[in-house]
Amino acid sequence: MFVSVFGCAGLADKNDSSASKTVGGPALRLDSKTIDLGTIPSGEDTIVGTIPIMNDGDDSEEIRMLRTELSDVMKELQLLRSDMKKVLAALGNAAPGCACAGAAAPSEVQPRPVDTNVYDVNIGSSPVLGKADAPVTITEWADFQCPFCAREYPKLKEILAAYPDKVRIVFKHRPLAFHKQAKPAHAAAQLAMEQGGSELFWKMHDRIIASPKALEVKDLRGYAEALNLDLPRFDAVMADPKKIDQFLKLDLDEAAKCKVNATPTVMINGLKLSGDRSIESYKARIDGLLKSAAVN
Length: 296
Prior knowledge:
It contains seven helices and ten strands. It is of the alpha+beta class.
């Protein structure tokens, strides 16, 4: 069974099969057929989508969780919508005489060219997972509040398991400006790095990545306490945005140098893995590097 979402009216009465009776909250209609999720035409404010429900029981907790998830999805879509408007506005403000002057339709926007630069990434004292002297370095620029980064991490661990002696993973902080809870989460991980090196960093990393919606300072403090971090030091950093920024400055400067503007950005020996980041794509790039190194 699925819940189909149309706009933002009320919650359908479960006993009303026509779904015409509503109460305060999002408008939901029970439907046995899946409807394509997330269609938001330009100029429209209506969100149409489908969210699966685990069972047909009268479970108020399930409904509460569903409404929370829906609220989060709507917020993310509004952010994406705002970004799209800024891009279209920029295209419409092209310089006089430019061939692209005037607002371009989305279908006319040319795809961004693939970055073929091989960057000399300064690993420095960044957290490392795997053998320190591995010939292949995967550098991941991540944002703890980014859902796509959470999905990328299992792939990185799978690659590390497939190449235990050949690959190492280096983590770089790249919190995005519109993710307001990201910076404190990254600072918490860096505090773990400061106290216990890479081993403690990855323990904090794994706790954060496992619960990407639990990024309040109180949540982070709970992780810090569980890992026996210096809590007075933790509290002092969390209370001072400037100290948080200082923790992240080196990686953010390096991100600017390497033209990292989105997360996750993955580099394999300095070359971005763009577009297809499937396991097969990872392996093809790694195998090519190892083969080249063996020949040379």
